[in-house]
Amino acid sequence: xxxxxxPRMFGLxxxxxxxxxxxxxxxAISATASAKPRLTEPKLTISEVEGQGPAxxxxxxxxxxxxxxxxxxxxIDNRIPSTIFVTARWLKHNAAAFAVMRANPDLFEIEDxxxxxxxxxxxxxxxFGIKTAGSPEDVAAEVEGGAAAIMxxxxxxxxxxxxxxxxxxxxxxxxxxxxxxxxxxxxxxxDSGSLLGASxxxxxxxxxxxxxxxxxxxxxPTHEAGExxxxxxxxxxxxxxxxxxxxxxxxPLSTKSF
Length: 258
Ligand SMILES: [Zn+2]
Hints:
Blueprint: H1 7-10, H2 17-20, E1 29-31, E2 55-62, H3 69-77, E3 82-86, H4 88-93, H5 95-102, E4 108-112, E5 125-127, E6 130-131, H6 136-152, E7 160-161, H7 170-178, E8 182-183, E9 188-189, H8 198-206, E10 213-217, H9 225-238, E11 242-244
Parallel strand pairs: 2-3, 2-10, 2-11, 3-4, 7-8, 9-10
Antiparallel strand pairs: 1-5, 5-6
Helix pairs in contact: 3-9, 8-9
The structure holds zinc ion.
Protein backbone atom coordinates (compact mmCIF):
# COMPACT_ATOMS: atom_id res chain seq x y z
CA UNK A 1 0.00 0.00 0.00
CA UNK A 2 1.31 3.40 -0.89
CA UNK A 3 1.23 6.22 1.58
CA UNK A 4 2.14 9.85 1.18
CA UNK A 5 5.45 10.55 2.78
CA UNK A 6 7.02 13.89 3.43
CA PRO A 7 10.78 14.35 2.96
CA ARG A 8 11.13 14.89 6.67
CA MET A 9 9.38 11.64 7.42
CA PHE A 10 11.54 10.00 4.80
CA GLY A 11 14.58 11.70 6.19
CA LEU A 12 17.48 10.71 4.03
CA UNK A 13 17.01 7.06 4.65
CA UNK A 14 17.26 6.30 0.97
CA UNK A 15 19.39 9.16 -0.25
CA UNK A 16 22.05 8.01 -2.64
CA UNK A 17 21.83 4.37 -1.69
CA UNK A 18 20.56 3.40 -5.13
CA UNK A 19 23.59 4.98 -6.66
CA UNK A 20 25.79 2.96 -4.45
CA UNK A 21 23.96 -0.26 -5.02
CA UNK A 22 23.81 -0.69 -1.27
CA UNK A 23 21.04 -2.59 0.41
CA UNK A 24 19.37 -0.91 3.35
CA UNK A 25 21.00 -2.30 6.46
CA UNK A 26 19.34 -2.33 9.84
CA UNK A 27 20.21 -0.26 11.69
CA ALA A 28 21.06 2.15 8.88
CA ILE A 29 23.84 3.81 10.82
CA SER A 30 26.41 2.06 12.91
CA ALA A 31 29.58 3.38 14.44
CA THR A 32 32.70 1.39 15.01
CA ALA A 33 33.61 3.80 17.77
CA SER A 34 31.98 3.20 21.12
CA ALA A 35 30.06 6.48 21.06
CA LYS A 36 27.83 7.06 18.07
CA PRO A 37 28.60 10.51 16.63
CA ARG A 38 25.78 12.89 15.93
CA LEU A 39 25.14 13.29 12.22
CA THR A 40 23.38 16.26 10.70
CA GLU A 41 21.66 16.79 7.38
CA PRO A 42 21.70 20.52 6.71
CA LYS A 43 18.60 22.09 5.30
CA LEU A 44 19.04 24.63 2.52
CA THR A 45 16.47 27.02 1.11
CA ILE A 46 16.79 30.06 -1.12
CA SER A 47 15.19 33.39 -0.38
CA GLU A 48 14.22 36.68 -1.94
CA VAL A 49 14.82 35.79 -5.56
CA GLU A 50 14.25 38.95 -7.56
CA GLY A 51 11.37 39.00 -9.98
CA GLN A 52 7.84 37.71 -10.13
CA GLY A 53 6.61 34.29 -9.10
CA PRO A 54 7.92 31.45 -6.97
CA ALA A 55 11.49 30.22 -7.43
CA UNK A 56 13.14 26.89 -6.68
CA UNK A 57 16.65 25.50 -7.05
CA UNK A 58 16.93 22.16 -8.80
CA UNK A 59 19.99 20.22 -7.67
CA UNK A 60 21.08 16.88 -9.07
CA UNK A 61 23.68 14.45 -7.82
CA UNK A 62 25.80 12.49 -10.31
CA UNK A 63 27.24 9.95 -7.89
CA UNK A 64 28.60 7.38 -10.33
CA UNK A 65 27.13 5.34 -13.15
CA UNK A 66 25.79 7.09 -16.23
CA UNK A 67 23.74 10.12 -17.18
CA UNK A 68 19.96 10.24 -17.37
CA UNK A 69 19.36 11.77 -20.78
CA UNK A 70 15.65 12.13 -20.04
CA UNK A 71 16.48 14.71 -17.38
CA UNK A 72 19.43 16.28 -19.21
CA UNK A 73 17.46 16.85 -22.41
CA UNK A 74 14.45 18.20 -20.51
CA UNK A 75 16.66 20.78 -18.81
CA ILE A 76 18.27 21.78 -22.12
CA ASP A 77 15.11 21.77 -24.24
CA ASN A 78 13.31 23.96 -21.70
CA ARG A 79 16.37 26.11 -20.91
CA ILE A 80 16.03 25.36 -17.21
CA PRO A 81 19.07 26.18 -15.03
CA SER A 82 20.19 23.70 -12.38
CA THR A 83 23.12 22.77 -10.17
CA ILE A 84 24.84 19.42 -10.80
CA PHE A 85 26.98 17.77 -8.12
CA VAL A 86 29.49 15.44 -9.77
CA THR A 87 32.09 13.04 -8.41
CA ALA A 88 35.46 12.28 -9.91
CA ARG A 89 34.16 8.74 -10.42
CA TRP A 90 31.22 9.96 -12.48
CA LEU A 91 33.36 12.36 -14.51
CA LYS A 92 35.72 9.56 -15.48
CA HIS A 93 32.98 7.72 -17.36
CA ASN A 94 30.76 10.54 -18.57
CA ALA A 95 32.94 12.92 -20.56
CA ALA A 96 30.31 13.37 -23.27
CA ALA A 97 27.58 14.36 -20.81
CA PHE A 98 29.98 16.70 -19.02
CA ALA A 99 30.82 18.32 -22.36
CA VAL A 100 27.11 18.90 -22.99
CA MET A 101 26.80 20.57 -19.59
CA ARG A 102 29.87 22.72 -20.18
CA ALA A 103 28.51 23.72 -23.58
CA ASN A 104 25.51 25.23 -21.77
CA PRO A 105 27.15 27.35 -19.07
CA ASP A 106 24.02 29.44 -18.66
CA LEU A 107 22.15 26.32 -17.56
CA PHE A 108 24.55 24.08 -15.66
CA GLU A 109 26.45 24.97 -12.54
CA ILE A 110 28.90 22.18 -11.77
CA GLU A 111 29.66 21.56 -8.11
CA ASP A 112 31.56 19.04 -5.99
CA UNK A 113 30.07 15.69 -4.91
CA UNK A 114 33.44 14.30 -3.86
CA UNK A 115 36.15 12.14 -5.34
CA UNK A 116 35.07 8.59 -4.56
CA UNK A 117 31.53 9.09 -3.24
CA UNK A 118 32.36 8.24 0.35
CA UNK A 119 30.45 10.08 3.08
CA UNK A 120 32.35 13.20 4.19
CA UNK A 121 32.33 12.13 7.82
CA UNK A 122 35.51 12.41 9.85
CA UNK A 123 35.04 9.39 12.09
CA UNK A 124 35.18 5.74 11.01
CA UNK A 125 31.68 4.32 10.78
CA UNK A 126 29.20 3.21 8.16
CA UNK A 127 26.18 5.07 6.82
CA PHE A 128 23.71 2.94 4.87
CA GLY A 129 26.39 0.29 4.83
CA ILE A 130 28.96 2.62 3.23
CA LYS A 131 32.27 3.25 4.94
CA THR A 132 32.83 6.91 5.72
CA ALA A 133 35.97 8.84 4.86
CA GLY A 134 36.88 8.23 8.50
CA SER A 135 39.27 11.05 9.38
CA PRO A 136 39.67 14.79 8.80
CA GLU A 137 42.48 14.07 6.33
CA ASP A 138 40.29 11.71 4.34
CA VAL A 139 37.38 14.16 4.36
CA ALA A 140 39.72 16.77 2.88
CA ALA A 141 40.89 14.27 0.25
CA GLU A 142 37.29 13.46 -0.70
CA VAL A 143 36.34 17.14 -0.99
CA GLU A 144 39.46 18.36 -2.75
CA GLY A 145 39.76 15.30 -4.96
CA GLY A 146 36.30 16.00 -6.33
CA ALA A 147 37.13 19.65 -6.95
CA ALA A 148 40.42 18.78 -8.63
CA ALA A 149 38.67 16.37 -10.99
CA ILE A 150 36.16 19.02 -12.03
CA MET A 151 38.92 21.51 -12.79
CA UNK A 152 41.04 18.88 -14.58
CA UNK A 153 38.02 18.19 -16.81
CA UNK A 154 37.81 21.88 -17.69
CA UNK A 155 35.24 23.04 -15.17
CA UNK A 156 35.44 26.03 -12.87
CA UNK A 157 36.57 25.74 -9.28
CA UNK A 158 33.50 24.55 -7.34
CA UNK A 159 32.14 26.61 -4.45
CA UNK A 160 29.55 24.16 -3.10
CA UNK A 161 30.09 20.65 -1.75
CA UNK A 162 27.57 17.92 -1.08
CA UNK A 163 28.88 14.66 0.33
CA UNK A 164 27.62 11.17 -0.41
CA UNK A 165 24.52 10.47 1.73
CA UNK A 166 24.39 14.23 2.55
CA UNK A 167 25.15 13.45 6.19
CA UNK A 168 27.99 15.01 8.15
CA UNK A 169 29.34 15.44 11.61
CA UNK A 170 29.32 19.08 12.76
CA UNK A 171 33.13 18.96 12.81
CA UNK A 172 33.23 17.74 9.19
CA UNK A 173 30.95 20.59 8.15
CA UNK A 174 33.30 23.05 9.85
CA UNK A 175 36.27 21.45 8.12
CA UNK A 176 34.62 21.57 4.68
CA UNK A 177 33.79 25.23 5.22
CA UNK A 178 37.36 25.92 6.28
CA UNK A 179 38.50 24.41 2.99
CA UNK A 180 36.48 27.14 1.28
CA UNK A 181 33.28 25.34 0.35
CA UNK A 182 29.65 25.86 1.26
CA UNK A 183 27.85 22.70 2.28
CA UNK A 184 24.82 22.13 0.07
CA UNK A 185 21.78 20.95 1.92
CA UNK A 186 18.31 20.80 0.42
CA UNK A 187 14.70 21.14 1.56
CA UNK A 188 12.86 18.57 -0.60
CA UNK A 189 14.08 15.05 -1.20
CA UNK A 190 12.81 14.61 -4.76
CA ASP A 191 13.61 10.99 -5.51
CA SER A 192 14.87 9.27 -2.33
CA GLY A 193 18.11 8.15 -3.88
CA SER A 194 16.44 7.48 -7.24
CA LEU A 195 14.39 4.73 -5.62
CA LEU A 196 10.96 6.36 -5.68
CA GLY A 197 8.52 5.48 -8.43
CA ALA A 198 7.69 8.06 -11.09
CA SER A 199 4.44 9.21 -9.49
CA UNK A 200 6.07 9.45 -6.07
CA UNK A 201 8.82 11.67 -7.46
CA UNK A 202 6.33 13.85 -9.31
CA UNK A 203 4.41 14.29 -6.04
CA UNK A 204 7.55 15.38 -4.23
CA UNK A 205 8.28 17.98 -6.91
CA UNK A 206 4.67 19.16 -6.79
CA UNK A 207 5.07 19.91 -3.07
CA UNK A 208 7.73 22.53 -3.80
CA UNK A 209 7.05 26.06 -2.67
CA UNK A 210 8.87 29.32 -3.23
CA UNK A 211 12.43 28.96 -1.90
CA UNK A 212 12.74 25.20 -1.90
CA UNK A 213 15.93 23.39 -2.90
CA UNK A 214 15.13 20.02 -4.46
CA UNK A 215 17.61 17.16 -4.57
CA UNK A 216 17.40 14.25 -6.98
CA UNK A 217 19.70 12.15 -9.16
CA UNK A 218 20.80 12.47 -12.78
CA UNK A 219 22.86 9.29 -12.94
CA UNK A 220 20.25 6.51 -13.05
CA PRO A 221 18.88 6.35 -16.61
CA THR A 222 17.18 3.00 -16.06
CA HIS A 223 15.23 4.02 -12.96
CA GLU A 224 11.58 4.98 -13.05
CA ALA A 225 12.44 7.92 -10.81
CA GLY A 226 13.91 9.85 -13.75
CA GLU A 227 10.55 9.82 -15.51
CA UNK A 228 9.06 11.39 -12.39
CA UNK A 229 11.79 14.03 -12.28
CA UNK A 230 10.92 15.06 -15.85
CA UNK A 231 7.22 15.24 -14.97
CA UNK A 232 8.01 17.19 -11.83
CA UNK A 233 10.19 19.74 -13.64
CA UNK A 234 7.61 20.30 -16.36
CA UNK A 235 4.86 20.63 -13.76
CA UNK A 236 6.78 23.34 -11.90
CA UNK A 237 7.49 25.16 -15.15
CA UNK A 238 3.82 25.01 -16.18
CA UNK A 239 2.85 26.46 -12.79
CA UNK A 240 5.10 29.47 -13.31
CA UNK A 241 8.04 28.53 -11.12
CA UNK A 242 11.41 30.08 -11.88
CA UNK A 243 14.63 28.11 -11.53
CA UNK A 244 17.82 29.42 -9.96
CA UNK A 245 21.25 27.96 -9.36
CA UNK A 246 23.04 27.82 -6.05
CA UNK A 247 25.94 29.99 -7.15
CA UNK A 248 23.53 32.81 -7.82
CA UNK A 249 22.52 32.78 -4.14
CA UNK A 250 24.46 34.27 -1.28
CA UNK A 251 22.27 33.84 1.78
CA PRO A 252 23.81 31.85 4.64
CA LEU A 253 23.08 28.17 4.94
CA SER A 254 20.34 27.51 7.43
CA THR A 255 21.66 25.68 10.44
CA LYS A 256 18.36 23.88 10.86
CA SER A 257 18.79 20.17 10.28
CA PHE A 258 16.38 17.41 9.42
ZN1 LIG B 1 25.57 10.71 -4.38
